[in-house]
Specification:
- The protein has 459 residues and is an alpha/beta fold.
- The protein has one domain: Metallo-dependent phosphatases (Purple Acid Phosphatase, chain A, domain 2).
- It is built from 11 helices and 22 strands.
- The strands form 5 sheets. Strands 1, 2, 5, 6, 17, 18, 19, 20, 21 and 22 form a 10-stranded mixed β-sheet that branches. A 6-stranded mixed β-sheet has the order 8-9-13-14-16-15.
- The longest helix is centred in the middle third of the chain and has 17 residues.
């Protein structure tokens, strides 16, 4: 049995192809670099003032735990997947065992997939919405350092800096050797898969990426220009038995069929095919509650992707965990939740302004705006670790993650403590039960019981 080693920094640097129009400098030094202050008083922000005492580090040998998790057999293909990444400050230099070993799981996978919900560009002047989900082009080094090498880009923040910002982000990813899908310089390119040839594998792995939003605001207006691949909404009127008329919203059939065609073509050319679906079925305003269950109409594209030949479907967008379904023995992860959630970074945007105006954050009565926090569900997620051999899924492990919700590492993930990990796995088990999916507790993470697998055979 063998374990893989993370790619050395020198190898990463050697893999970058520099361009006269877009050049990277050397990777940043391991130590944090000083950053100018924001220019306003942040003394009351969650970065500077704690409401809860910091969690005491658990007395556990994380190195040994993760080393055992990473043990493989010859011929294994390991794919790790995480959810939404809103990312603008470095995390790869952090040395706490529960943070370092979390990234190690990504670094030592053959393929590590995430949803890139921010832009890599040097054009802050192009910012369109309130949130500044952007990092400079050199931040691509940091994305590589975490282990992520394949990203989904069809999401509602990919065009926050317009067509020019999107083109610059695509170019940056290309230079950094990060494969991508779901966005392109044309609509046809947006529908092309991002592909990688994993070490020791004959076939390339492919990722297709789509966004399903509750409006069609990001539908491509000019197929010859920068576009996203989208599954847009349709609303029809339905006559009910009681004589009333009801408006029913769901995904457009033509877009779902286009996705199925994309999957079919990818299966003809490549090996394993993964589909990423970034789903916003309604606004994130907390008036709708914690959206941890996928509405029936929204399950349609997930299932049709599997029926069309996809090997796995990875959900993102709700910013909370949703259940796991096995369809024809292939996994649908309806939402992996957040992974890096640095969307209130004071060096980029004043932390307390979102606290005052953000519809996504609950506002309990008699709680000061300065004490408002993201809900617990928003700050929990998992890494899905899938092991394939001879084209068959042999193991699906769900490694629980928590995200700091206050202090200077706000939005930064870590491996969950054993107690929190059990609670997260129990939550996923409850959310997955309606699909008939069982998740076994493995001491500090969960493992999905696959049809015909060891756990199923023992029953």
């Amino acid at each position: 049995m063998t374990t893989r080693r993370p790619l050395a920094a020198g190898a990463i640097a050697a893999s970058l192809l520099l361009s006269p129009g877009l050049a990277f400098s050397a990777p940043p030094a391991p130590s944090p670099q000083p950053t100018p202050g924001p220019g306003w008083d942040q003394g009351r922000s969650v970065y500077e003032r704690r409401v809860h005492p910091p969690e005491e580090p658990e007395k556990v040998d994380w190195d040994a735990r993760v080393r055992e998790l990473l043990r493989e057999e010859p011929g294994d293909l390991v794919v790790a997947a995480v959810g939404d990444m809103i990312f603008n400050e470095r995390i790869s230099h952090l040395r706490e065992p529960e943070r370092r070993n979390l990234l190690r799981i990504l670094q030592e996978a053959d393929v590590a997939i995430g949803n890139l919900e921010f832009s890599l560009n040097d054009r802050p002047d192009l910012q369109k919405p309130f949130y500044d989900f952007r990092a400079g082009r050199e931040f691509a080094w940091e994305v590589v350092a975490t282990g992520i090498n394949l990203v989904a880009m069809a999401n509602n923040h990919a065009l926050d800096f317009g067509a020019e910002g999107l083109k610059e982000c695509l170019r940056t990813l290309d230079l950094a050797g990060i494969a991508h899908a779901g966005a392109g310089r044309t609509l046809a390119e947006a529908h092309q898969p991002g592909t990688l040839r994993p070490p020791g594998q004959k076939e390339r792995l492919a990722l297709l990426s789509y966004m399903r939003y509750w409006t069609d605001r990001d539908r491509c207006a000019d197929p010859a220009g920068p576009c996203l691949s989208t599954i847009d909404p349709a609303t029809v009127l339905v006559a009910r038995d009681d004589g009333k008329v009801e408006a029913v919203e769901g995904p457009q059939e033509r877009d779902v069929k286009t996705m199925e065609d994309d999957v079919l073509l990818a299966k003809r050319r490549y090996g394993p095919v993964f589909v990423s679906l970034h789903v916003h079925d309604v606004s994130h305003a907390r008036v709708f509650g914690v959206q941890d269950r996928t509405p029936p109409n929204e399950e349609i594209p997930f299932r049709r992707a599997i029926d069309g030949g996809a090997d796995a479907v990875l959900g993102s967008g709700p910013h909370v965990l949703r259940g796991v379904e096995l369809r024809n023995g292939k996994p649908i992860l309806y939402s992996l939740g957040n992974f890096v959630y640095q969307y209130r970074t004071p060096k980029v945007i004043p932390t307390d302004l979102p606290h005052q105006r953000d519809q996504e954050m609950a506002r309990p009565p008699n709680v000061s705006v300065w004490d408002r926090r993201d809900s617990r569900e928003v700050m929990e997620s998992v890494v899905a670790r899938m092991t394939y051999r001879d084209g068959t899924l042999r193991k699906l492990e769900l490694i629980p993650v928590t995200i700091d919700d206050e202090g200077p590492l706000y939005g930064v993930p870590r491996l969950a403590s054993t107690k929190r990990a059990k609670e997260i796995v129990d939550l996923l088990a409850r959310l997955s039960a309606p699909y008939g999916t069982r998740i076994a507790w493995k001491g500090w993470y969960g493992e999905v019981e696959l049809p015909g697998g060891p756990a199923a055979a023992a029953k």
